[in-house]
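Appendix C: a fully annotated inverse folding record. The material below is reproduced so that readers can follow the format used throughout the book. The structure is listed first as tokens, followed by the designed sequence.
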């Protein structure tokens, strides 16, 4: 192998110097500078999270007021009863009162405890209203309380046989949520 000329030695020296700078950059300076950028990005994320948290904390009074309004109106959305059986009885009484007020008769009524989840009362009733009474009763059930009509079957076989409007055979299943009455604190 022949000895390197002065020009070649300078080129090798410059190449080694560039390699040393590149190595120093990738090993020392790059991670050091990259750490600044990573911490700056993390600071921005933390700042955004802090701003979100401030907005959430500022909305706490609004959510408390909404919860109070819901607590105050809870009785509109559930029957107040000591037990599930008492809730079923209240549901039956309401349906009987509705039949009396609307002028139709209830031929059968039973509670459906086995089919209901905890906190719900469910009743099945067989009714004999005319069309107007049925419509008005369903409207009242829909608007007057925490009642949900889960099943409705209407049969007009008698009207078909006689050729004129007659009482309908209706099977109705209604349910309502129930909760124990709130204890009063002095």
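Designed amino acids, in order:
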């Amino acid at each position: 192998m022949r000895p390197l000329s002065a020009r070649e030695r300078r080129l090798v020296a410059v190449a080694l110097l560039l390699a040393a700078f590149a190595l120093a950059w990738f090993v020392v300076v790059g991670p050091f500078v990259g750490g600044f950028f990573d911490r700056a990005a993390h600071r921005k994320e933390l700042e955004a999270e802090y701003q979100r948290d401030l907005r959430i904390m500022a909305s706490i009074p609004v959510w408390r007021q909404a919860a109070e309004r819901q607590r105050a109106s809870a009785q509109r959305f559930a029957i107040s009863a000591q037990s599930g059986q008492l809730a079923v009885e209240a549901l039956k009484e309401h349906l009987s009162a509705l039949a009396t007020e609307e002028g139709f008769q209830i031929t059968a009524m039973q509670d459906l405890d086995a089919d209901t989840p905890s906190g719900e009362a469910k009743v099945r009733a067989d009714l004999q209203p005319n069309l107007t009474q049925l419509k008005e009763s369903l409207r009242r059930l829909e608007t007057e309380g925490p009642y949900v009509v889960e099943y409705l079957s209407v049969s007009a076989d008698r009207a078909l046989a006689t050729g004129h409007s007659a009482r309908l055979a209706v099977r109705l299943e209604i349910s309502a949520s129930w909760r124990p009455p709130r204890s009063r604190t002095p």
